[in-house]
Amino acid sequence: xxxxxxxxxxxxxxxxxxxxxxxxxxxxxxxxxxxxxxxxxxxxxxxxxxxxxxxxxxxxxxxxxxxxxxxxxxxxxxxxxxxxxxxxxxxxxxxxxxxxxxxxxxxxxxxxxxxxxxxxxxxxxxxxxxxxxxxxxxxxxxxxxxxxxxxxxxxxxxxxxxxxxxxxxxxxxxxxxxxxxxxxxxxxxxxxxxxxxxxxxxxxxxxxxxxxxxxxxxxxxxxxxxxxxxxxxxxxxxxxxxxxxxxxxxxxxxxxxxxxxxxxxxxxxxxxxxxxxxxxxxxxxxxxxxxxxxxxxxxxxxxxxxxxxxxxxxxxxxxxxxxxxxxxxxxxxxxxxxxxxxxxxxxxxxxxxxxxxxxxxxxxxxxxxxxxxxxxxxxxxxxxxxxxxxxxxxxxxxxxxxxxxxxxxxxxxxxxxxxxxxxxxxxxxxxxxxxxxxxxxxxxxxxxxxxxxxxxxxxxxxxxxxxxxxxxxxxxxxxxxxxxxxxxxxxxxxxxxxxxxxxxxxxxxxxxxxxxxxxxxxx
Length: 523
Prior knowledge:
Elements (H helix, E strand, L loop, with lengths): L1 H23 L23 H4 L2 H16 L10 E7 L4 H14 L16 E6 L10 H10 L30 H7 L3 E9 L3 H4 L42 E5 L20 H8 L3 E4 L2 H6 L7 E5 L8 H4 L12 H12 L6 E7 L1 H7 L3 H21 L5 E7 L2 E2 L1 E3 L35 E6 L12 H4 L8 E4 L5 E2 L3 E6 L9 E3 L2 H10 L1 H6 L2
Parallel strand pairs: 1-7, 1-8, 2-15, 3-4, 3-7, 4-6, 5-6, 11-12
Antiparallel strand pairs: 2-14, 8-14, 9-13, 10-11
């Protein structure tokens, strides 16, 4: 019963958070919106160049085989590992995201590849939690960071630990990659556009029997002996000297409620404690302060750029929620790598595009896909800064969403637009059985579900940045999907990313590439 109650509380919290995400981000959970589409709406007419020729397709296929034949496994021990996680970035999101990126560049989009889709090694990853067919981010991120699949809502606790219970918590606590890395003198870091106390980033450094305990105010008054809130654990040494860099949102969980925007009831100011804990430590609160930081003289860097989650990429410059425009995911990734690269012993960094998930939960594909493109930009930035002969880069998702691409649109059709068929079928939008047009993108469930008669969408409505794509099942928030997600790898031992694997195997690829646990055990 306790287990079921815990899951119910977590589910309710997710529903509340989806509504909050929508309101904080400047768009409401309604299907009809008035914000016009940008003038440079993507999509191009079909050309002969896009069609190609029989010979051009044969030549392209042969060239692709030659490129694959040239790939040789890199079996040297990795010095550095960067794990990129697109939260909720399922395969349909990758497809639509690559089309969007291509169309924003003035092309048809389908032929495009996101930066990490050029990686030579790929696999499919099974995302279920041990107690759930369709997973949540806490259990999946725990698998990524500890090598152990676990329950819904769990932050680095084993599968036998009951959610929300502190009984036997010490015996069921798991050591994450960052913990092993700190033990052998490596530098460690986490970057996220979500709150740093949110599920995926929390698994880099914290242990909690339930993801909801982001600060002490969110913990029950009784029955938590042996547990600590997630935020305070970011200062822990993790068996070494602690995280060298942590950049993201979630300032409220680090400040006392006596300070504007703070939530902590214990009076602790964790930003001050971060600075005081180690010589050379620094704290920044906006993009300008981040840009001004002296990397060479800074030993540990904490950056908190929003009270809650950071802005969606689509809103970051056009609808900023903070007085100073927030740094992009690529900006934070660049700073993190500069900080971590100072260590000759190497580093481990997790970078999360956390808001892909939030936009999908709100049923808003435009924001989800723009944050997917932002993650691609961050990967590209990382690749330009490291030596891929000694740095393993893995890109994956923690889970998928019930997000679909359908309807037989013509090549180059605007990805957010109404389905328009190939020329053979006509030039007007395709009509459904109710004689109304429909969009390429949609959701199985979510707030875009229509009660009663479905409206006849116009192109401008469909391509509005605030449009909620239509959904079948009316739920408060769109849900995760249970299908496999992709894994992309480049660098030492990336060739182990192959076939279909359990999600926890990704940890073991990293462990093998770094010889991590063996080196830690020898200390």
